[in-house]
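W.,

You were right to be curious about this one. When I first looked at the sequence I had no strong expectations either way, so I just let the prediction run and decided to look at it fresh. Below is the sequence, 119 residues in total, followed by the output.
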Amino acid sequence: MAVHGRFQSQPEESCLNNALQELRRFYTTVSPSPESWEFLLQWPIHLPPDFVSLLEQGNPAALAMLAHWCVAVHNAPRKWYMGDFAHKVMDKIYRQLESTAWGGVVEWPVSQILQPGVA
């Protein structure tokens, strides 16, 4: 997943690259189907502060990263307070990105969360 582009400022690109680096680090220690919540919040805790702003702005790279993290949340042991958080978030991300160049980047999360069994 490339996060550089002509429409992003240097600070945005740096923030996204840091978030991507943390997501990669997250998935080296946490399975897409974690057996516990022990390390599940590791990625959001280590995000650069401006990443949330990029999510709020609908930045497609930020949304795609969130979608990939949602797979682990979706597959983690159920917690009553989470409900179907990952499904709801993934549905919104998919609707926003499906008809853009970023639609292909979220194919794996979509197949894991919205269309289980269709990989």
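Here's what jumped out at me. The chain has a mean pLDDT of 90. And, maybe more interesting for your project: Helices lie at 10-29, 42-45, 50-56, 60-75, 85-97, 107-113.

Coffee later to discuss?

I.
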